[in-house]
Amino acid sequence: MHLLSEHRRQEHVFSEIDARLKLLVSVALLLLVLSHKGFGFPLVVLAMSLLLCIVMRVSLKVFMLRFSEPVFIACVLVLIKFFFSGRDVLFTFSVFGLELTGYRDGLIAGLLVAARIIGAVSVIAVLGFATSFTDLISGLAWFRFPKTLIEILLFAYRYIFMLLEDALIIYNAQKNRLGYSSVRRGMNSFGVLAGSLILKAFEHSQKATVAMIQRGYDGTMPSLQHKPFKPSEIAVSIALVVVMGVLWKM
Asked: How many whole angstroms separate alpha carbon 105 and alpha carbon 100?
């Protein structure tokens, strides 16, 4: 549960920056990363993101957890492009009667896609490490994101940890009763765990609905009051986007 919670172990200089500016800069960097046609710029963004994570003292365990899934997806895409796309043949070999051919242009195309994925994910990771969830939602609301989406995000963030805690309680009870001593018993226990979580999700939703109606909920969520933009933060944000734009053009 600790690994899924937001990284707010200590205050740092980035936590004081206006969330709206961080959102704008992140969107600008995402557009630059996704539109770049080479390896250089995404790798520069990745290096900058790693440096910012070190400054924010993000633990290696949390960092690896955040990047494990996108790195796996990037590796799968590289392999698919390498063996099933391209014309310039590098080598051919057979595995269990299946002939596989590696293509040079397919490998390059896969690495380009992987670089964009890792660069974009690093931007999102830094935004998540540097911004609390409430500030992020407040910034999205200020940009007039759909209210329905904002409400779904708030409820999901509120109850995902409750369901995780329920899942851990059920799992530990099953494990203490040797519910995972074999593959068959493990599958049965997992089915019971999944069904119990679905029932608890419906139970939590009914309780939340009743509680909000009793408190006069009319479909509108109160939003946080934003402070005025600081000229220094605006200047630094513009300078950062300009510098990254110059690097993108190089």
From this structure: 15
